[in-house]
Each structure stands twice: as structure tokens, then as C-alpha cells.
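ok so for the tutorial part 2 we go from a plain amino acid sequence to predicted C-alpha cells. step 1 is just haveing the sequence, like this:
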Amino acid sequence: MAFGASSPFLFVVHPSVPARSVSEFVALAKAKPAQLNYASSGNGTPPHLAGEMFKSMARVNIVHVPYKNAAPAMIDTISGQVQTMFVILPLGLPHVQAGKVRALGVTGTKRSPLAADLPTVAESGIPGFEVIGWNGFLAPAATPRLVVAKLNGEFSRALKQTDVPQRLAAVGYEPAAENTPEQFLAYMKAEVAKWAKVVQQSGAKVE
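step 2 — the prediction. this is what the C-alpha cells look like for a chain of 207 residues:
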């Protein structure tokens, strides 16, 4: 019915990794094929597919290490058991700010206001790279169109309330611009097609 809010991922590395930019990491990965590991919150999850997209677009060979969820993946990245991971900004930014991991880039199409000095992966040598964590509001398929339109308007109105953007920003999310049910449906279809291509190219499976 309506796009709600979104947040980019952070591309982070353990401080021992001798790369301070995306381009330096790509060069390192090419010099050490299959010697660098990236953590994810499990097979088929957004961080896993983000890593596979990165491998394809950067033409590098880094090894996927799946975990049961994001927390242990983050812990092992912090400890240096794995070298890198893509982590949703709200979870990763506090560890970046504490110096436990180093952020090389954000995965949105633009820089995040919460980390304005951090370049996007796309502007760092991998044009077109984009991974966004997003949330929206849905209703059962049989919901009457008038009801869907009414709910869409109410959600859009709520997202414009003064305190809502502030609360979302506090946890690393940005409210979506006003959108129609048709626009949200088109976005979801585009996302499905985008990630289906990544799955097909990488052979990623849920095990």
C-alpha cells in the first residue's frame, strides 16, 4: 500500500584490513583471491546478496561465511574472525563510531545524513551498486481499492508528522517520499527482478 522507510547498509571491515576505501579493498581482494571472508546474517539474506552483488560488480572473489543472524556476524567481524560484511546502518554505525570496525562506504544512491563524510560504494568505483533495506505497509490482496487508497493517504500523512522523521532518523532510517500504491508495487517488482538476477548469477541458495 505504501513505502514506509529505508536505510542503506554499511560496507565495513575489521581495522586490521589494510584498506581505507572501497577501491583499496577491491585491489586487496584481487591480490588475494578467496583469502578474504565476508560475514552475513544467513544464506539468502540481504547482507549475503549484497556481498554476492559486490563480488560480481567488483569482479573479486571473497568467501561467504553465513551466520544465524546479524548479531554473531557483527561480533565475528569486530573480533577479526572475518574481514568484512555489509550491515544495515542502524546496527553497524555505533560500532564504526566506537572504532571497532572501519566503514568504507554506504550502499545507497546518496550519502547518508548520519554518516555524511562516508562515500557511497557507487561513487567509490562501483557505479550502479545499490543495496537498501526498506519497509512498507501491505494489505491482503482482496482489500478494496478505496480502502487501500485511504490507508495509503493515512500512512503518508503519518510519515510527515514532525516527530516521525526524527524518530526514524534516530534509529538510522529515512521516511519515504509520498508515494502511491502503484508506485510502491512497481518498486517491489523492480527489487524482485534485481535480486533474482543476483541469485541467478551467483547461484545463491537458502540451505
